Amino acid sequence: MVNDAPESPGTKSNPRLRLLPLIALIFYDVAGGPFGVEDSVRAGGGPLLSLLGFLIFPLFWSIPEALVTAELATTFPENGGYVVWISTAFGPFWGFQEGFWKWFSGVMDNALYPVLFLDYLKHSLPIFNQLTARIPALLGITVGLTYLNYRGLHIVGFSAVLLAAFSLFPFLVMGILSLPRIRPQRWLVVDTRKVEWRGYFNSMFWNLNYWDKASTLAGEIEEPSRTFPKALLGAVVLVVASYLIPLLAGTGALSTNPSEWTDGYFAEVGMMIGGYWLKWWIQAAAAMSNLGLFEAEMSSDAFQLLGMSEIGILPSLFASRSKYGTPTISILCSASGVIFLSWMSFQEILEFLNFLYALGMLLEFAAFIKLRIKKPDLSRPYRVPLQTFGATMLCLPPALLLVLVMCLASARTYLVSGLLIMIGMLLYPAVIYTRDRKWIRFNTDERAHPEDGDIDDEAMMLEGHRVIADEAVSLLSSSTPRGTDKASETPSEGVLKLE
User: Fold this and answer.
1) What tens digit of pLDDT does each residue of 355-409 get?
2) How many Å apart are CA 302 and CA 103, to the nearest integer?
3) Cα separation of 402 and 400, whole Å?
4) Contact in structure between 96 and 428 (CB atoms under 8 Å)
């Protein structure tokens, strides 16, 4: 059973997300197209390391993260996603820290998209190089896209499908036009003296992470146990293809200096391969892609806060929904963070969010392994086809990559991230204090999550509820229309909030 958030009397019952919109949302959570991958060519000292990175990194990073997400998201099909997983494995304190780190990194990630949008636009409209035009544009973009997100998740999912098609089509055309000019030896170019390892790994990591992000929407997905694994598989294929095809076309058809490959350079590549019409098309695609990226990230961040409120570790106001079924306060909170952070540069945002994201992912891998050991019989609609030792080995390469990314961070990143970690650790007892004093309303006064030693007892109680629910459903099934079956999903053993 997915806990329903409190709804106002006028709240509409919105359609749940299905396979194709979910693929599009995961695609936008992770990639959104090749916009922003140009810097990997520059930081890698040429095309070779960039191409190898997008071939090898998915094997050691994207696929393991997607598999872990598929298992845990189908085991706990609730809004809040990874916050629920961590709280189950390590308790609500670490669940709160995970939520704080991942929400803050998500907001920082979302602050990139208005910046990237203007970076593409300034190639044709240089006025956006000036702060007097850039700042109002950033504010206008953020406010406008926040309103669209407020209007409904199903609208976001449907629009993501259309935006993905529009954003990727010009690169397919560019790939076809480049074929007669391809010279494979150009793909092998690398100048090791110009490789910037910190920028290279940060670029690779950023362009191939956030596979777990859509788990925060699990409570809004139709038949999540079936839909989520299929959507993740489709998204992995789409993301890798959307990076490799444009890079192979641009670096193979043109003899360019790697230093020219900066954010927005694909528009220039399109002009050199197809002409001005292709350049303008790519710029329009970049603009549309940033709409999708912003919308998908905003949805995930907002529904994460809603999920944290539903399980009792944030005040209930974060679970309040608009008449469109969207978490109004959570959306406004995320939008405010985006506006506050949008003054930072691309590389600054990239490094900060990667560091916080890496911390959160290490906790997720640890929770995945601990739940395999402590609760091997937990109901898992999708299970990674590996035993506990194999599952641990699956997590080892991406965990080493996370540690590497964190080790390559600058001193400033360590300082800012350390400060944020301290804020999170102080914020949790403050939130609990306000809850215990009843200064702010929470959705539950009971412990939202079992501590480590209580998982078995909690699971036994929930199993009893599950058996009773199964018997009730079987008795009613003969007289209930088939179309309503989906509305009464059975809880997993690990659902944390007791009704």
Assistant:
1) 888 899 999 999 999 999 999 989 999 999 999 999 999 999 999 989 988 888 8
2) 9
3) 5
4) yes
